[in-house]
Amino acid sequence: MQGELTASVAPARANKLLGLELLRFLTAFAILVFHYRQFFVGDREVGLLQDHLPLYWLLAPLYGSGPYAVRMFWCISGFIFFWKYRDAIADRVLDGWKFFVLRFSRLYPLHLATLLLVALLQPLYVGLHGSSFVYQNNDLTHFALQLLMAGTATSQDALSFNGPIWSVSVEVLVYFVFFVLLLASRSWWLNVALIAISLTIPGEVADCFTYFYVGGLAAMARQSLQSSPAHALAAEGTAWLAVVSAVCGYWLMGGQLRSIGLLLLLICTPLLLYSLSRDIVLPARLQRIVEAAGNVTYSSYLLHFPIQLAMVLGFSLMQAPIPLYDDAFFATFIGITLLASHFTYRYFEEPAQRLIRAALLPVRGEAVRRPAMA
Q: What 3-state DSSP class applies to 28?
């Protein structure tokens, strides 16, 4: 049996974090569903009827999932960063320049491309409607801030251009702190201290620190138990029990305890990440599908708003109402976004990463050839 399972997996493409890849995709999908409501800005004569949204009977939780999905992304990033980079940075194997190039090459090319695309499309929308689509602060100051990936430097309410990039720009600050602090200590107590401090500070930046470092604790827990399979399995079972119990309790309450929703997320997400980070053996084809799903998360996050803007412009030019409550229109938006994200990752993101890393990194090691997961 073991021989058959092993033979069905492509050894060169082994990935011990397939569970996290799938969770990343589901989280990205939740954000696409949550932001579907932005189409209503483009149709000025229609008000949002929540229970009439496409497939609402199935996707109702996702239509209100935006704040939760973003924080889950931060938590997943924390897990992956501590999993991949913690020891390398603390042991001085990965220096600051290489870390910067890895992150810059992963994030900036698509950010720049989508920023320029939105900057070209928004004036067309303004010409037709007199104001920008969704995000209004599209001036030179905010464009300069966006070029520096600092679009939230003025105010969280002053989102501009390709607005969803705000959560990534917040996370970039955390990357810097993550690297610097690991040069001083890799102790898990440092994570606990940062989480405790961040919980006392309101705002998205503090939330990002909280969820990122909670995810880091989950990664450290998984790594510390790798040498003891029995203890790891016991911890995994306990984590699943806690997550299922919390979710079921929240569901039975009808989601009425919204005030503790983010607290439950803070508790459950690292437990879920710990459980999903176990070694998963899949047939080679299924493994490639899961990896491909994980790869489109960043591109779908940055592409979905420009795609919405382009679709709204198309309906405006045709002087036709947007079929907002139509299931086929919803499926078309999701399908176009995911398909565009797949090809963007394959033919733009990956080549751009290779080009930048080959140009800026002196040694072509495995870390240069393979894009970082996060």
A: helix
